[in-house]
Automatic annotation (TrEMBL):
The chain crosses the membrane at residues 12-36, 56-76, 88-118, 162-184, 191-209. InterPro entries: DUF1275 (IPR010699). Keywords: Membrane, Transmembrane, Transmembrane helix. This is DUF1275 domain-containing protein. It comes from the Bacteria. The lineage of its organism: Bacteria, Pseudomonadati, Pseudomonadota, Gammaproteobacteria, Salinisphaerales. It holds the Pfam family DUF1275.
């Protein structure tokens, strides 16, 4: 996180907000399964496999779709030169828009598929040498780094390096709250707010962060 430029960090916080927003929509739609948080789905998969195989099907399917989304985003990163971050973000936005279209035509599972693919691809927006340099849909690692940076403060290190990790967590939390509120009023039609944010982030990535690393 702290090795990225400040404007890239700001975009990463917005991406975590988008992930939290979409994850809340998925969680409320699927009745307790996640669209972006695969650690939670892995737990649901394990528990479901023991209690009832049928309850393991949804988390298993979402995990597979998420991984396929990561593969798609990584392939774009490898095949596109400059502005690859914006192109990946454009792919995420397109998938979210397709999800919204599926919702409008009452193709429920099509919407879920596109949401899961989008969340996998979103994690590859910031990629270096084939590895994700900024994960935006999972917070366990971020909270670990937050704790390490706070420890560094106690030992006389940089007093503010922890703040960006905290903001990543706040971004996800804020997105989840907004997604939950939107779902209560608009159900899955709330996806179009996510599409609008995706369009804005694609534009910012074109302008601010063309991806030279």
């Amino acid at each position: 996180m702290i090795t990225h430029r400040r404007r890239e960090r700001a975009i990463a916080v917005a991406l975590t907000g988008l992930a939290g927003y979409v994850d809340a929509l998925g969680f409320m739609t699927l009745g307790g399964y996640f669209i972006a948080f695969m650690s939670g789905n892995t737990t649901r998969l394990g528990v479901g496999a023991v209690r009832s195989v049928s309850t393991a099907v949804v988390p298993a399917a979402v995990i597979i779709l998420f991984v396929l989304g990561v593969v798609g985003g990584s392939l774009v990163n490898h095949r596109v030169g400059a502005h690859r971050r914006a192109v990946v973000m454009g792919l995420v936005t397109l998938l979210l828009a397709l999800s919204g279209v599926c919702q409008r035509v009452d193709f429920f599972w099509g919407a879920i598929v596109c949401m899961a693919l989008a969340m996998g691809a979103e994690n590859t927006v910031f990629e270096r040498n084939g590895e994700v340099s900024l994960g935006v849909t999972y917070m366990t690692g971020t909270l670990v780094k937050l704790g390490q940076r706070l420890t560094s403060v106690l030992l006389g290190g940089d007093r503010w390096a922890w703040a960006w990790y905290f903001l990543l967590w706040v971004g996800l939390l804020a997105g989840t709250v907004l997604g939950s509120l939107a779902y209560l009023h608009f159900a899955l039609d709330s996806l179009w707010f996510a599409v609008a944010l995706g369009v804005g982030l694609t534009g910012l990535l074109l302008w601010w962060a063309p991806a030279s690393d």
